[in-house]
From TrEMBL:
Signal sequence interval, chain numbering: 1-28
Listed transmembrane segments: 60-77
Keyword Transmembrane helix assigned: yes
Protein's recorded name: Ergosterol biosynthesis protein
Length: 129
């Protein structure tokens, strides 16, 4: 039970990244996909140096979605969840999301919450491992 409690932040964060990836990679969740598409239209140009597609929104979404899926997998896998590369991916993508949302005039609470969860996952991984 204690190990499940210790893994809970990683599970929640992995789920957040998985849902965000699915919203970008397919239209399996049509409402979320459409909402993500609209937000990406506003913020894609702000991420141009990081994401190489500023005018092609579907390619931008697939690119970011693939990175989100990799991050979710690294968070879900016990041997990589407390690692520096996983923390780096979480902080990079949540930071990029918060920055582009702020530049676009959108709310950026969720990326900041996910960054905090990422740091918590890293610290718990270091303490437990």
């Amino acid at each position: 039970m204690l190990s499940l409690f210790a893994a809970l932040p990683a599970i929640v964060l992995s789920l957040h990244f998985t849902i965000a990836a699915v919203a970008r990679l397919s239209d399996a969740l049509p409402t979320l996909h459409a909402r993500t598409y609209r937000k990406t239209q506003l913020s894609a140009a702000k991420l141009y140096p990081i994401v190489p597609f500023k005018d092609d929104i579907p390619r931008h979404m697939r690119y970011v979605g693939a990175w989100y899926l990799l991050t979710a997998a690294m968070l879900a896998w016990p041997s990589t969840r407390g690692s520096l590369p996983t923390l780096g991916l979480v902080l990079f993508w949540t930071g990029a999301g918060a920055w582009s949302r702020a530049k676009s005039g959108l709310k950026f609470r969720l990326p900041l919450m996910n960054a905090s969860l990422g740091v918590l996952v890293f610290v718990m991984g270091r303490l437990n491992g």
